[in-house]
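Q: How do we represent a protein-ligand complex in a form that can be generated token by token?
A: Start from the inputs.
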Amino acid sequence: MQAGNGATSRNFSLGIDGFTFHDLFQPARLAALDQAFRAQVKARDAALSARFESYRAGASLSPVEESNLLVDVAPQLGDFVGELFRVQAQRDKLFARAADERALGRVRAFVMRRCARLKKDEKAEPLGATRGILSFISAALGLGAIAGDEELSSLRLVAAASELEEALAASVRAAKPVPLTDAQKQNLKKLREAAKGHAWFAGADSDEALAKAVALRCELWLKSCLHTEEGRQATRGWSTLKIPQPMNYDKLVHSIKPDPAFPQKHYGPEEHLRRRDGFKLTDKRYSEREVGYEVDYCILCHDRDKDSCSKGLKDASGFKSNKVGISLEGCPLEEKISEMHALRRQGDSIGALALICIDNPMCPGTGHRICNDCMKSCIYQTQDPVNIPQAETGALIDVLRMDFGVEIFGLLTRFNPLNRKRPYALPYNGLKTLVVGMGPAGYTLSHHLMNEGFGVAAIDGLKIEPPPADITGHDGKGIRAIKRYEEIEQELDKRIFTGFGGVSEYGITVRWDKNFLYLLQITLMRRDALALFGGTRFGGTVSIDDAWELGFDHIAIATGAGKPTIINIKNNLCRGIRKASDFLMALQLTGASKRDNLSNLQVRLPALVIGGGLTGIDTATELLAYYPVQVEKHIERYETLCRENGKTSVDSWLQGEDKEILAEFQDHFAEIKAERERAATAGE
Ligand code: SF4
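Then emit the structure tokens for the protein with iron/sulfur cluster bound:
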């Protein structure tokens, strides 16, 4: 990229004339960027521009009109931002992915219509008897395998057959024949040629009969895949073949009870088990394909104002409740979920993220593993709902994985022409706010206050580690752009706890990707309007009187989620007993889970966890993950000390109970080592 006028290497020219990277942090330049975007929309689509300008000027629209307009304008914003950061080629790849997903969506619909259930007395044929249809279509149409993607390689053949069958059937049904596309005509010709003399297609003389016969063969193959053990094994992990299951509110968590004499004993199904070793991210989220499935499964209710995921499920008396009494109020932020799905379905993840950011600009702190009120209120109440949090996080990840993805996300928090209430951040208005607490409430409030032009001093009792000064521009040379998200992304078991994010940092286990917190911290700390102070307690380091004397106009208290839990049970602080929440916080905040950390969090097994809520479950899982780490750390250090000081000397330092614990850990260390060797041999 070339440097702009008066630019340094950090302040490079962007892909829209007249703008440099550092302009994206200046309110006045963001206002100019908004003008540039609107001018571009006008030049490209005058009718759309007229609708959009009227909306921005305050025109009152019905919810459906507003949704449709935003869905129409979002691709323009996707293009504009793509040009700004010169990532059009990467966007094109996402559009190509969307085309594949559309083909798979066609197969999903085919499966649901024809293959999900067998008819009475019907039996699926063995896989070997039906899969020949794939090689037939593949050879006929000249569609070879796609390396590393058997699902798409196979199912795109079904998609082609299904498309042809539907097109011909529609043409027959229509009053006037609907002509096939050139591609469909070509495919039909090739299939006709290949079918000559083939027993499967004997008698299929008309085009329609041939297309039907090919589709029927596909149906039989898919039934083998879904309804025979061999088929299920062969297509394991193919998300396209996932069949939504009925919702059973009496059994929301599937479990197995192995011992009828001991019905309290139960555990999860084998296929849901995930192997875990230590404190790396335990849930890698859905794959792009799985996200595509969810987005295709959504029926895009916004164009009927029925998007209950966003607005809640209502009847005449207000919000409905589900069978377990949960009020179905939808997303608390009323995020434009259905609209976002529409854009993600087109492959426009920047447009999708822009739609999310209208109502939820701090979206890295939400989504998968954080919240699911939207899912509970999805229109699908009697079968699996759309997994919206996965789709939301998936759209964010798509953008973050582009060049300058971090910058694109950051820009959309300060500049979003789709958000007519606050299309770009306002300049400083002279008023100063003290925000107390940097958890989700505090950082989100700080963001909105800054966008409204307030200066924010944010404090948190925890020590906050600053990001590298070049990334935030605190080295005085201007902000350095982050080209690849991987630059700031870390394995969770190596990551330094930055202290930012409050309960999201210390109260959530490694099932959630805490790199998102770092992304938010960087995004906010780059703002001139923010000063962030860790290790500063309100009421201690700074009192209310101090705050007024320091010249603050307003104090916002955003604390409380992490208050210590005092349980009213006698002797609850005696040796060997620890509050579950206290254990989890100690694990996170002391860094005990890290191999190179020295902390005094010692546990011995067996441990009894009392309580089956979220904290109890987290404690059980984290305890199991922590114990081997603790034992290995302990023994590795003991052995190092013995090497350096001699075993006799080291043993002489230990007292009675220390010796007992050491012996116990040595036994368990040997067992862990043997298990690691077994797992390595088994390739687990
Ligand atoms: S997520 Fe559910 S409620 Fe929301 S638009 Fe899609 S199908 Fe409708």
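The radius of gyration is 29 Å. The chain has 26 helices and six strands.
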